[in-house]
Design brief:
The protein is an alpha/beta fold. The protein is built from 51 helices and 22 strands.
Length: 1429
């Protein structure tokens, strides 16, 4: 309701100024808000992950302690059982090393193998060997000798080396923080002393099972802990500035190091086990393993629980860090793992004590035992034989009874053991204090969070804390080395080809949403990015038949109206700064978006530059990556005589350089090509800023990712759209996720994909992409699926393409059957051609691309084979439908099913395209009825058979269940499963008829969609008096008389009749178009004379230099320094008059200026933008401009007073002088600006806010500025001319070449159809003969079970080929389903981490910056040295 009222108030405000206050408000234009459900989801996930980390850590630690207790010589188990438990304890140490070995082997074998440096490998092997020795000694030898509580405390000392290195390297952000590692070192040493003292107390107080040799084991435990502490030596060294060269070298071949060291550690662990237990008495009794039957079940359960919980704790810990729940999801649960385990153990012990009756005498003649636990501990030997008590509980209790808790004298010595545990625990926490302050970027790799890939299952909590990277200073004199996210520049490039008004509205709304999300480009953003929007309009011009004028067509007119409409929706005013530029490829419109980001609309003339999407992509890639990248890295040196705006200059050693004029261009100088991104969009794509940022995260996370695509949602209405909704869903849910997980995505669609600049600029990518198709196969691969070909080039060069399921984009899909078939007619052959090209170069691609392995190549071969056999499979499915529905015999049903596709293929060869599509539509409807009947027949057959355990039943039920589960795992898209039935009944149309249509029409290389003639010579004929077409014999005569011709004839007749009479007054022309053009031209010239002018060309400027003094030279600027966005306020009040002219945005009429010649298309375009200078629009624009200027100044009262008073001033100046729709003249604009400035000055002085005067004046100036007519700089114009000549010159093919290409295309078509036909016919014929031979002769008999579990007497008989294909397809689906589950988990992690850092649109306070304002955006925050130039 509040939204309705707010929109109503805005509408009432507009209605006061105009009789047309109504406007479009596209969906999604409102500000994005953090939804409560996502906030709750984030907190819920963080809590769940934290609980899982704590639970898995406690279970891991507890199960290890249980195994050490069961294998202890002091346990109540027999020797055979203890020997088996010791073997499992050794397996616990081996398991994580084995996992690392397999992972490293996979990466070295299928990813990349880097030969290691011998010295570094030797050092690593020595360190890992010492760690393995220490771990094996402590766990296998020492811990079984002690009780469970001592074993819980002793490993805490493994942090001692990390503490020492932190003290030595001074790895603290502040000096006082060195107290943490010092305290840790003191506490650990104190803990070791307390261990020895507490053991002495045990021996002296006659605690049972205490031996003098325990002191030896304490010494060995301390020595082993020191060796284990070497495990995390790398963390402090990485945080310091020491041996960085070696560590960087180690990162290059870390997989190889882990491959070798994991085997080494396994060998050492096994060796120590056999040496100690094999050589010591009584040795290993191999026959005893068969006797330990009672220990097998308990031991295996504890072992698998320990192995699983250790891996789970490590994984959940990583997840907690990635979702920004470091404190409460990682540090807190891991740090309290030890205390939680202790509490759990003591609780179990106390429960066991309470549940046991102990009738032991505690009073003796000399003394009385006051220990309440002594009686319970004394009868444990009897309790062990009772079945009512579990073995684990008894052993835990028995181990605790070996501590001072079982002292017959007093309980106070137990406090020493407790103090020992507290010291060790506090020592660990103080050593890893930095974990609590860990700052994690939105999305980080595991290698950026943890130093080592390996985790220690025996000490999982210590391993996670000590392995967490120290993000601290490298040396005393250096600042923090937190890995901050590097800034990036994103170029949004949308290609348009005959889009409708509503489609244009979507893409413009998305761009303006991003502008609002990013904010002022001069300010920093939490996502560290800047962007520009570029729209490339194909076929933007037309030629008017009547006048021969070159004008923009109706699509461009619609686009201009959409830009203005969306601008009004977001700001409630007209565009402030607009430039119109004539270019060698057509024209360009430049807009400054509300927050200051740039929007460029490039109008392509098909007579000057090549048409279609691929050439538009080449155009913007060369312009943005090639030209802009070169231009910002090589500033243009200029002569002193050129009087360029001084805001664009920097002077060093007497030489001047022209700086890039836009903020992004200047920032680009400090941004590498790796952090320059190109966002490919279609002209109808709708997306939110979050979708773009999620893709940026993927490219930031992995340096080898060359492109990333999002989840594309088709939009529209009708059955064809319903089919595509489920088709897109299945393709993204299963196929794209499988490609992402197992290798790399093969196609990143051009409607919504982010590309890395350095990847596009790589060898054999962009240069190869410019190849002009000359052969038949090139026409299919290059021009019919340009997006897939570009991705193929990236993959072949070693780049990875990824898929982000949370990045949603919406695009219009074909709603008509014909448009859908024509679209897929392009996609199908192109997909097959590019996939075959990738498979053909598979060997080389595997060598270059670490994401693609031979296994992935085999996976793609299988999928391609399945798609090739698709028509035959569908035909056999239809034959099965005939069998189910009509009871037709198997062989006859195959014959009947083959006839329609064969007939349709013949029709496609001989008939026109439209007739082919009509027949396909009719057959699709027939097939849909047949598939519907087949669906219900299968269900009926399962009911009749009494079981669904049949090949067909299992396939249908399992497929339905799998798709339902998949849909549930995509909660925002789960409703799409409703369209699954539509997809099912359309399978024959999509996989049989469409395949035939695509192959047979492969020789047609036209686009097939959006082929419209709208805008071609369809200008309304205005002022035509007579228009007749006359036919005389063989002559066709067109007679047309316009109003101008009639008026001219009347004047000539009058002068012929009366030559002495004065010329008659020229009649008023009736053509509104001509009159409007005249008015616009007059207004334009007046305003143009008072706006800053564009540059002269070189010849004109040299000529002027000969005739004029240096001070009288014309001002010069480039297209990249447009006057509409470079008005400059000087930081001093005593600037000269010339600078004041630039500051005010006007050139003094006395100054020399050049009028840029205007082309025919410029005048009507400029007329549209001049509407902002009407009385009605000026009032609204002024009000909104003032509000926007003071939006962050916390001066609401002053703002409203300014709006009220300036509006009154404007009304006083214009009310009786102009009408609401009249455009103001230059004189009126000057008078109005002076009046408004004076009124603003008085108000600000009254409120003592003079510091805001310049800001308000700039706002008034922007309101009154007119659209600029500009010219490209000579350098850029030269660039475009050379680019057009080299790569983008319109293709003019002669008829002979066209015929040759058509012949080659038909020949290629025939070969492809023949190959498809032969393969599918062989499959169908094989199935036919198997049916003809009978099921008894060649069939596989499968037992048939009823739902109640009983076995049927009649087994099921399945053909070998059908079973093989069915099983292969089922395996493929299962593999894709597992990949989807994996991908879902990491998508959830990414989404939760993004929602935690999502921008909030709350207003923020800004420090006033009016004391020093540089409107030239390059000067803000830019420091230029001689090295830069």
């Amino acid at each position: 309701m509040e939204d309705l009222k707010q929109r109503g108030r805005k509408r009432e405000g507009r209605h006061r100024d105009t009789w047309d206050p109504f406007q479009l408000n596209p969906i999604g234009a409102e500000k994005e808000e953090k939804r409560t459900c996502f906030i709750l989801l984030q907190n819920l996930v963080a809590v769940i992950v934290g609980v899982l980390v704590l639970a898995s850590a406690v279970m891991s630690k507890g199960s290890l302690l249980v195994l050490t207790t069961l294998s202890s010589p002091k346990s109540l188990r027999d020797p055979a059982d203890r020997q088996f438990y010791t073997l499992l304890l050794m397996c616990v140490l081996v398991t994580p090393n084995l996992l690392v070995f397999f992972k490293s082997l996979w990466k070295c074998a299928f990813k990349s193998y880097v030969p290691p440096n011998a010295k570094t490998m030797g050092i690593m092997c020595v360190i890992e060997s010492l760690v393995a020795v220490g771990t094996a000694i402590l766990v296998l030898i020492v811990m079984p000798q002690f009780d469970i509580l001592t074993n819980l405390c002793i490993p805490g000392g493994t942090c001692i080396l990390s503490s020492v290195l932190q003290i030595v390297f001074r790895l603290q952000r502040d000096r006082w923080m060195i107290i943490y590692p010092i305290c840790s070192l003191i506490l650990v040493i104190s803990g070791y002393i307390l261990v020895a003292v507490e053991y002495y107390v045990r021996v002296s107080s006659f605690v049972p099972f205490q031996e003098a040799e325990g002191y030896l084991y304490i010494g060995i435990a301390i020595f082993a802990s020191l060796l284990i502490s070497l495990n995390w030596w790398e963390n402090p060294f990485r945080a310091s500035s020491n041996i960085q060269e070696m560590l960087n070298e180690l990162d290059g071949f870390r997989d190889t190091v882990y491959l070798v060291t994991s085997v080494l550690r396994i060998g050492i662990t096994v060796a120590i086990y056999f040496l100690y237990y094999g050589l010591s008495e009584p040795g290993i009794d191999w026959g005893a393993f068969s006797k330990a039957k009672s220990a097998v079940d308990i031991g295996l359960v504890v072992f698998f629980l320990q192995a699983f919980c250790s891996a789970a704790c490590h994984w959940f810990g990583v997840v907690a860090c990635k979702i920004h729940a470091v404190k409460f999801g990682f540090a807190l649960p891991v740090s309290f793992c030890g205390p939680a385990t202790l509490i759990l153990g003591i609780t179990l012990f106390l429960i066991q004590v309470d549940n046991t009756d102990h009738n032991i005498i505690t009073s003796f003649p000399n003394f009385t035992i006051e220990n309440p636990f002594w009686a319970f501990c004394s009868q444990l030997a009897n309790i062990k034989d009772k079945n009512s008590t579990s073995v684990v509980m008894v052993e835990i209790s028995n181990s605790i009874c070996q501590t001072t808790l079982n002292s017959p004298y007093a309980l106070w010595p137990f406090s020493m053991l407790a103090l020992e545990g507290v010291c060790m625990w506090l020592g660990l926490v103080s050593c890893t204090y930095y974990v609590w302050k860990l700052k994690v970027q939105r999305i980080e790799r595991t290698s950026q969070l943890f130093v080592r890939r390996l985790y220690e299952s025996a000490f999982i909590d210590l391993s996670l804390l000590l392995n967490t990277k120290m993000k601290v200073i490298r040396s005393r004199n250096k600042e923090s080395v937190n890995e901050e996210v590097e800034n990036c520049v994103i170029y949004l490039c949308a290609t348009m080809w005959h889009e409708t008004y509503d489609e244009m509205l979507k893409i413009l709304t998305s761009m303006f949403r991003l502008d609002r999300y990013r904010g002022d480009p001069k300010e920093e953003h939490k996502d560290c990015f800047d962007f520009e929007c570029h729209i490339y309009v194909d076929d933007a011009f037309m030629k008017e038949k009547e006048t021969g004028m070159r004008l923009v067509n109706s699509y461009v007119e619609d686009l201009i109206h959409v830009v203005m409409e969306v601008y009004r929706v977001f700001t409630n005013k007209e565009p402030d700064e607009v430039s119109i530029i004539e270019t060698p490829y057509g024209g360009r419109l430049v807009f400054v978006m509300p927050e200051g980001n740039m929007l460029y609309v490039h109008l392509k003339d098909k007579n000057l530059i090549r048409n279609k999407k691929r050439w538009s992509q080449i155009m913007y890639m060369y312009y943005l990556l090639g030209w802009k990248g070169y231009n910002v890295k090589n500033p243009m040196k200029i002569t002193r005589q050129n009087n360029v705006n001084r805001a664009s200059l920097v002077s060093l050693d007497g030489e001047s350089y022209l700086l890039p004029a836009h903020d992004n261009d200047s920032k680009r100088r400090h941004i590498s090509d790796d952090n320059t991104y190109v966002m490919a969009l279609d002209g109808d794509t709708d997306f939110h800023p979050a979708a773009l940022i999620l893709l940026v995260d993927r490219l930031r996370m992995y340096d080898n990712v060359g492109a990333a695509c999002g989840r594309i949602h088709p939009t529209g209405m009708g059955p064809m759209v319903w089919y595509q909704k489920f088709e897109y869903a299945v393709g993204h849910w299963l196929q794209k996720t499988a490609e992402h997980v197992f290798g790399s995505v093969l196609c990143s669609p051009g409607c919504f994909s982010l590309f890395r600049g350095s990847a596009l600029m790589d060898d054999n990518v962009l240069k190869r992409y410019t190849t002009k198709a000359t052969r038949a196969s090139e026409y299919v691969q290059y021009d019919q699926g340009e997006d897939r070909w570009l991705c193929t080039l990236l993959l072949q060069q070693g780049w990875r393409v990824e898929y982000n399921a949370a990045s949603d984009a919406y695009t219009n899909s074909p709603q008509e059957f014909k448009e859908f078939y024509n679209q897929r007619r392009r996609w199908g052959p192109s997909t097959l051609a590019n996939t075959l090209d990738l498979l053909h170069s598979g060997t080389e691609t595997v060598k270059r691309n670490t994401s693609i392995s031979f296994i992935y190549i085999l996976y793609q071969i299988f999928t391609v084979s399945s798609s090739i056999l698709g028509p035959a499979s569908v035909t056999l499915m239809i034959a099965g439908a005939f069998q189910f529905v009509f009871g037709v015999p198997g062989t006859l049903s195959i014959i009947i099913a083959v006839i329609p596709p064969v007939v349709y293929m013949i029709i496609c060869f001989v008939a026109k395209s439209n007739f082919q599509i009509t027949i396909a539509a009719i057959l699709s409807v027939i097939y849909a009825f047949l598939m519907t009947a087949s669906f219900f027949s299968i269900i009926g057959d399962m009911v009749k058979q009494g079981t669904f355990i049949t090949p067909t039943g299992l396939f249908l039920v399992s497929g339905a269940i799998m798709y339902m589960v998949t849909a549930i795992l995509h909660p925002q898209e789960c409703t799409l499963v409703i369209y699954g039935l539509m997809y099912f009944i359309c399978i024959p149309s999509g996989y049989l008829l469409l395949t035939i249509y695509s192959l047979v029409n492969m020789h047609i290389v036209s686009w097939g969609t959006r082929e419209s003639n709208k805008g071609e010579d369809n200008k309304k004929k205005v002022g035509v008096v007579c228009n007749r077409d006359c036919k005389l014999c063989c002559w066709d005569v067109k007679i047309e008389v316009t109003q101008e011709t009639e008026n001219l004839m009347l004047q000539q007749i009058q002068q012929a009749v009366n030559p002495s009479a004065p010329a008659a007054a020229k009649p008023e022309p009736t053509s509104p178009t001509i009159q409007d053009h005249l008015n616009v031209v007059n207004t334009d010239k007046q305003i143009l004379d008072h706006n800053k002018q564009v540059t002269h060309n070189k010849d004109e400027h040299k000529k002027n230099l000969l005739n004029k003094k240096d001070g009288d030279t014309d001002s010069q600027s480039s297209v990249s320094s447009k006057s509409c966005e470079k008005k400059m306020d000087s930081s001093n009040d005593d600037t000269d008059d010339e600078d004041d002219d630039y500051i005010d945005g006007y050139i003094n009429p006395g100054m020399a200026k050049e009028v840029v010649p205007e082309s025919d298309w410029v005048i009507p375009v400029k007329k549209v933008f001049l509407k902002k200078l009407t009385y009605a629009n000026l009032k609204r624009n002024l009000q909104e401009q003032i509000r926007y200027t003071l939006r962050n100044k916390n001066q609401e009262d002053l703002c409203e007073e300014l709006v009220l008073m300036l509006t009154d001033t404007l009304n006083e100046e214009l009310r009786d002088k102009v009408g609401p729709e009249d455009i103001l003249t230059v004189g009126q604009l000057e008078e109005l600006q002076d009046a408004l400035n004076e009124a603003a000055r008085r108000i600000l002085k009254t409120n003592r806010m003079e510091r805001l005067e310049r800001r308000i004046k700039r706002g008034i100036e922007r309101t009154l500025v007119a659209p600029q007519i500009e010219r490209l700089s000579e350098d850029e114009e030269d660039f475009w001319e050379k680019l057009l000549e080299r790569y983008l010159k319109p293709i003019a093919e002669d008829e002979a070449h066209k015929k040759e290409v058509t012949r080659e295309l038909k020949s290629l078509r025939n070969k492809a159809v023949f190959l498809y036909f032969i393969i599918n016919v062989l499959w169908v014929v094989a199935t036919f003969f198997l049916q003809a031979m009978g099921s008894d002769l060649l069939s596989i008999k499968i037992p048939k079970y009823f739902p109640n579990g009983t076995l049927s007497d009649d087994p099921m008989k399945v053909e070998p080929l059908s079973l093989m294909f069915l099983l292969s397809f089922a395996v493929l689906l299962i593999v894709q389903f597992l990949a989807m589950l994996y991908h879902r988990v990491y998508t959830l992690i990414h989404v939760v981490s993004y929602r935690g850092t999502e921008k909030d649109y709350k207003k923020k306070d800004e420090e006033d910056d009016d004391d020093l304002i540089l409107e030239n955006q390059t000067a803000n925050g830019l420091i230029i040295t001689s090295d830069d130039l």
